[in-house]
Design brief:
Layout lengths: L1 E9 L5 H8 L9 E10 L5 E5 L6 H8 L7 E6 L2 E2 L5 H10 E4 L3 H4 L6 H11 L7 H11 L16 H13 L5 E5 L7 H18 L2 E5 L3 H7 L2 E6 L2 E7 H6 L4 H6 L41 H5 L5 E4 L2 E3 L3 H5 L2
Parallel strand pairs: 3-8, 3-9, 6-7, 7-8
Antiparallel strand pairs: 1-2, 1-4, 4-5, 9-10, 10-12, 11-12
The structure holds adenosine-5'-triphosphate, iron/sulfur cluster and magnesium ion.
C-alpha cells in the first residue's frame, strides 16, 4: 500500500448563516484539526510496519485511512499500484475487504447480542465468500486463532479479554484479508495475554502471508514485532527505518527523545522516557517543523520551513533540517 501526500482534516462545516457571519467577521471560523498533514508512507507486502507516536498525533486516523474506512481530505492511497479512490466499485469492494482493521477494545467491536458463530460468519456471508458449509467455515477460522469451536454458540461477554481478542481476529480474518491494521490491538490485555496474542499475530502472518500496519504506543512491543518502524509527530511521519536501525541510530531529534531509555536498575524489559515539553495542539500546529518548540536543536529555519524527507542511510528516511548541513 502506498499512501501519497495524504492529509486529513476534521472539523464542522459551517452552514450558510455561519459562513456569512464568518465572512463579515461576526463569528470565528470553526476549529479545524489537521489530523494528518501530507503523509507519505509505503507498506510493503509481507512486512510488519510499526507506527509510533504520542497520543493524538494521527496514528488511528492514518490506520483508518489505510484500512479504507476513512477517506483522506487530500492525497491518494494506492493498493497494489491502483488508486483506491479511482477504482471501479467491484475492485474497490475487494480492496476494502483485503484491508481489515482490528481495534483496541474487542468488546466495543463485537455486537453483544450475537453469538461467536454469527459474529465470525456475518461479513463473509454478506459478501458471498462462504462456498461450502457455514459452520465448517467458521470453525476453520476459530481454530486458526486458537479458539475452541465447540464454544461458538456463546455470547462475547461470556469470554475473557484474551478470548474476545481471538474472536475479534477471527472475525477480521473471515473475509480473507491480506493486510491487517492493528490499532492498539493488545493494549487492553494483561501482559501475559498480550504476549500470546502477539505470537498469534506472528503465526498468522506466516500461515496466511499477511501484511501488518501495527499501531502501538508500547515501544517494546513495536521493537519486538516490527520489520520497519514509522514515527509520527503531530500529523506527519518524521522518520522511518528498519527496526534495528531506528532503535540503534535514531536520526530525528523527536525519535531520539522518544527512544531515550530510562536508566535500568534491573535487567529486563526496556523502559522509555517521556518526551519533554507539551504536545502542541493539532488545531493550530507550530509552523515549519512541528517539533521546533520542543527540539533542543531548533534554529530559525526550523520555525518557518517544513523539513523535507531525506534518506540518511539505506531505507532510513528522516525529515529534519540537521540532515541538510551534514550532507554535501
Ligand atoms: N472524528 C473526529 N473528529 C474530530 N477530530 C478527530 C476525529 N478523529 C480524530 N480526531 C482528532 O485528530 C487528531 C488525531 O487523532 P488520532 O485518533 O488519529 O490520534 P492517535 O495518534 O491515534 O491518538 P491515540 O494514541 O490517543 O489513539 C486528534 O487531535 C483527534 O482529536
Ligand atoms: S527540523 Fe529543526 S526543529 Fe525540527 S527536528 Fe530538526 S532540528 Fe529540530
Ligand atoms: Mg489512536
Amino acid at each position: 500500500m502506498d499512501i501519497r501526500k495524504v492529509s486529513r482534516r476534521f472539523g464542522a462545516t459551517p452552514d450558510l448563516a455561519a459562513r456569512i457571519s464568518i465572512a463579515i467577521g461576526a463569528a470565528k471560523p470553526p476549529a479545524v484539526v489537521q489530523a494528518l498533514d501530507d503523509v507519505n508512507l509505503t507498506i510493503r507486502a509481507g512486512e510488519v510496519l510499526g507506527l509510533v507516536g504520542e497520543s493524538g498525533c494521527g496514528k488511528s486516523t492514518l490506520g483508518r485511512i489505510a484500512a479504507g474506512i476513512l477517506s483522506p481530505t487530500a492525497g491518494e492511497v494506492f493498493w497494489k499500484g491502483q488508486n483506491v479512490a479511482a477504482m471501479p466499485s467491484q475492485a474497490r469492494r475487494d480492496a476494502d475487504l483485503a484491508a481489515q482493521m482490528i481495534f483496541q477494545n474487542p468488546m466495543a467491536a463485537l455486537n453483544p447480542r450475537m453469538n461467536v458463530e454469527n459474529l465470525v460468519a456475518e461479513a463473509p456471508s454478506i459478501h458471498g465468500m462462504i462456498r461450502g458449509n457455514r459452520a465448517d467455515y467458521v470453525d476453520d477460522y476459530l481454530r486458526k486463532v486458537g479458539f475452541d469451536p465447540t464454544m461458538k454458540q456463546r455470547l462475547p461477554h461470556q469470554f475473557s479479554g484474551g478470548q474476545r481478542a481471538r474472536i475479534n481476529i477471527a472475525r477480521a480474518l473471515a473475509v480473507q484479508p491480506e493486510f491487517l491494521v492493528c490499532d492498539e490491538s493488545v493494549a487492553a490485555l494483561d501482559v501475559s495475554i498480550q504476549a500470546q496474542i502477539l505470537n498469534l499475530f506472528m503465526d498468522l502472518r506466516e500461515q496466511l502471508d499477511l501484511t501488518y500496519l501495527f499501531v502501538s504506543h508500547d515501544l517494546g512491543v513495536v521493537e519486538h514485532i516490527s520489520d520497519r518502524v514509522a514515527i509520527m509527530y503531530l500529523g506527519r511521519v518524521v522518520e522511518e527505518a528498519p527496526v534495528e536501525e531506528i532503535f540503534a541510530r535514531p536520526n530525528h531529534p523527536y525519535t531520539q527523545a522518544l527512544l531515550a531509555e530510562v536508566p535500568r536498575i534491573k535487567p529486563g524489559k526496556r523502559q522509555f522516557q517521556a518526551v519533554k515539553g507539551e504536545l502542541p495542539s493539532p488545531i493550530n500546529p507550530p509552523k515549519g517543523c512541528h517539533f521546533h518548540p520542543r527540539c533542543p536543536y531548533a534554529s530559525e529555519r526550523c520555525r518557518v520551513e517544513v523539513p523535507e524527507r531525506r534518506e540518511v542511510a539505506p531505507g532510513h528516511i528522516s525529515a529534519c533540517h540537521l540532515n541538510d548541513s551534514t550532507s554535501t
